[in-house]
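Deliverable D5.2: sample structural annotation.
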Amino acid sequence: MRLGCAAYSYRQALQAGDLSLEAFVDECARMGLDGVELTSYYFPETGRDYLNSLKAHCFRRGMHILGTAVGSNFAQADEDAREEHVRMTCEWIDHSVILGAPVMRVFAGPIPSGVAEDTAFGWALDCLRRCVDYAAKEGVVVALENHGGVTSTPAQVQKFLDALDSPWFGINLDFGNFRDDPYPGYAQIAPRTVTTHAKVTYRKGEGKEPVDYVQVAQIMQAAGYQGYISVEYEEKDDALAAVPRFVETLKQAFR
């Protein structure tokens, strides 16, 4: 397994303009990581020249572009809004091709107020299926994150896996997003996991507990997972100081 980092980990600095995507890549190289997840929110532009320049910068720093990520919401009640998010997602599949990213993370979305869960699931599945069909033609894997809403629990995630059986579809397993006792859920989803997000903690009751990454490593190895363990830092401490410490924890667990 390789170690990477999602740009979202440095969201405050990226949003404030204190850090560029190129500087983020440099920081990941300094930490001895293998790759970077380039989150769509932080791109200053998406013209071909900029994408090529960023791709070249990653190459020069020895950084694999492990994936891209978009903030899709396929469970919106408004049909036009869902269509716009399908269009946006397919556009970012095209950007992923230019960048050489093999996978793109997506969200299914929250359940709208007053809407039955099965209805929201159906909307999200329809959008997701069309995006996966498009991605398959372009050679990009679509990774659905367990991220609340219709993907809050292992059982909800499993519904998508049962309904969409494609080699171009899998899960972005976020180790911080299942609640209470997450480890059985990890084991259930691990066989269809194509990329991951490593958070420091998960929610237990009204508080938080550190994720046991030694146990996570055992689960993922047992499932035959050989992909990226990608840091997505969300704690309160400053990322520039805290992410390197967390990376060392992951190195001990996975290497």
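Annotation notes: The longest strand covers residues 64-69. The mean pLDDT is 97.
The annotation will be released with the project's public dataset once the embargo ends.
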